[in-house]
Structures are given as C-alpha cells and as structure tokens.
Amino acid sequence: MFIDSHCHLDFPDLAGKLDALLENMQTNQVTHALCVGVNLENFPRVRALAESHPNLFASVGVHPDYENTAEPEVEQLLELTNHAKVVALGETGLDYFRLKGDLEWQRERFRRHIRAARQCGKPLIIHTRSAAEDTLRIMKEEGADKVGGVMHCFTESWEIARRALDLNFYISFSGIVTFKNAAIIKEVAKKVPADRMLIETDSPYLAPVPHRGETNQPAFVRHVAEEIARLRETDLAEIAKATTNNFFNLFKVA
Ligand SMILES: [Zn+2]
Ligand SMILES: [Zn+2]
Questions:
Q1: Buried b (16+ CB within 10 A) or exposed e, 156-182
Q2: Separation of 142 CA from ligand 2 center, angstroms?
Q3: Of the bound ligands, which one is closest to the alpha carbon of residue 6?
Q4: pLDDT in tens, 35-55
Q5: Model confidence pTM above 0.90
Q6: Closest ligand to residue 59's CA
Q7: Residue 109 Cα to ligand 1 middle (Å)
Q8: What percent of the chain has pLDDT over 70?
Q9: For residue 193, how many other CB atoms are within 10 A of its CB?
C-alpha cells in the first residue's frame, strides 16, 4: 500500500471529483492521503474532507506564496490543530522564487508555525524554494528539531537534505523525481535513509511521468514510489512498506 503524504484535494481542479479520486486511489492501493492546508480561509474545506473520509487527514497552515491573506496567530493555529484528524502544521516555510522584495513577513509567519508546532507537539510540513539557507537557519533558531516534520516536495541537494535530516526531518519526494532532468533529486532519493523518506503528489500539480501535463491526483503517487524503487535498486514493496510506516510514525496516526 501507498500513502500520498501531501495533496490539495480542495483546489478547484480536484474539488468535485472526489468520488473518482478516491476510487482511483483504491485501484492503485493508495490507502491514505494527507490534505494540506494553504491558508485559513480554505481550511474548513480541508478539515471537512478529513472529517468525512476515514482515510483522509488534514493539516493547517498558511503557505508562503499567499501574500494577501489573514496572518495566523500562534493561538489560532493551536486551536485549529486541536482536532483528531488535523495531524500537522503547514504547509509553511519560505519561497523566494515566486515573490521578491522584503519577505520578512514570510519569515515571521514561518516562525509562528514552528512555535505552534512546538506547543502542540504536531509535526511541521515545510515548503522551501530558492530559500534553503534561511529555511534551515530559522528551523534551527526556533528549535524545529524538537518537533520534527517533513521537507515536502524536496528539490534541493544532498547537502541540504543531510542538514534537514540532522534536524529530525523526513524528506518527501514528489513527481519531480520521475522527471528526466532531475539528476540532483534522483541522487538524494538514492541516499536518503529508508526510515526517513516519504512520497507525495502535491496534487493537482506536478503529475509524475507517465502522466506529465495531466492534472495530478493521489493515485499517481505510485509512480513516485516506482521511480524511487528503481533508483535504489530495490522492490516496490520495500518502498511502499517503508514510506507507509514512516507516514504513520511521523504523523502518529494508525
Ligand atoms: Zn509546497
Ligand atoms: Zn502543497
């Protein structure tokens, strides 16, 4: 069995297709999926998905790409995570690729998520793009290693992966690992310890080979696992077992 550790089933491309998505998951032995929040406005829909389906979970957070959205208070994040199906804080982090200028607000927002995670003891889902050094620095400064979490949709070097692993974080691979030009990420997928890796789709984005260009969906996470098995010269079943166990260990759900 496989688990999609990061998807956005509430986004317009996927909302309304839920029955088909769940059916495709079942056909492909994708047993669970984690629906990740990106802002507070849409969070009730993310939570509702988790509440109405035993195999869906939710997280709450405000993504660094959302500039004009309600800024989350630590108290507010704590209130929203106090729910059996809300298993993580995020996605949060830094993105210096999409937005330019003074991004101090992104760093402050990121710090609040880490503080909330440390208070409630739930892990972090971290998004980082063109901002690895600042991301790791803030993780260290705020003691993110005390609570751990996952570096989602990992696109950095092995050196960055190693430093995130040292901070108690898991590394999650998306469909990007199946892309021909993703040599650096393929290298990381070969080296990361088996007990610290996760798989995800980040649906509706980043559909893996052989579905590139299509709308991504949790069922396609199987292709991510297949590519990792190929790279590590191991059985698909081994990757399925490891990533599933890792998911349950990190998010403390059974
Ligand atoms: Zn992300
Ligand atoms: Zn995402």
A1: bebebbebbbebbbbbbbbbbbbbeeb
A2: 22
A3: 2
A4: 999 999 999 999 999 999 999
A5: yes
A6: 2
A7: 15
A8: 100
A9: 11
